[in-house]
């Protein structure tokens, strides 16, 4: 990882640009899109609850944080060893093995929001507006709780490296939320196109940088 981290950091910069462009160019990216509007209703609707209730109850945000470590670890076939959550003392997850994605996952992955995405296929279309409002509600909760939790003093950030974490999390958040917004606007088809467009935009910027370096080397 000592060799890979600088490479991933540099790639993350270009991927942030590429997927940022893809996000901005997502078709129908405006509040007049019904599903996106209801997503924003749910998002904004949670904010008052956060100031009334959310900030006083750390247990749920700690649970989500540790559950995200656990879930992503399982996705990488890392066997769980222990899982503990305590409101006053924090939480801890122990896995047999790990990687930087597992370590940093709580800072870019709105777990409960993404768990609900497959339900899109089974929900009656007449309930879609409520479904997307719920996605917005849960996403707002994740973002606000992550803003409270994130710190360069966090063991997860220190373990992964502050510089590496900064650039990787910038890309990861653009990717994850860009995918989510594209999904809200046009379903999984548009979300898939977002991934494709972001990749090719990133590739274009990488090739442009390589050409610049080569031209400077010839001078």
Q: Which spans of ≥5 residues are poorly predicted at pLDDT below 50?
A: none
**Share of helix, binned:** over 70%
Total domain modules: 1
Mean pLDDT across all amino acids: 91
Main sheet: strands, sense, barrel: 2 strands, antiparallel
Biggest sheet strand line-up: 1-2
Q: Which structural class matches the secondary elements?
A: mainly alpha
* Total strands: 2
Structural topology:
Elements: H1 4-24, H2 34-52, H3 58-75, E1 80-86, E2 90-95, H4 100-104, H5 111-116, H6 128-149, H7 155-160, H8 162-218
Antiparallel strand pairs: 1-2
Description:
With 219 residues, the chain is mainly α. The chain has one domain (32-206). 70% of the residues lie in helices and 6% in strands. The chain contains 8 helices and 2 strands; from the N terminus they run αααββααααα. It has a two-stranded antiparallel ribbon. α1 (4-24) packs across α8.
Which terms would index this structure?
219 residues, mainly alpha, two-stranded antiparallel sheet, globular
In short:
With 219 residues, this protein is mainly α. The chain has helices at 4-24, 34-52, 58-75, 100-104, 111-116, 128-149, 155-160, 162-218, and strands spanning 80-86, 90-95.
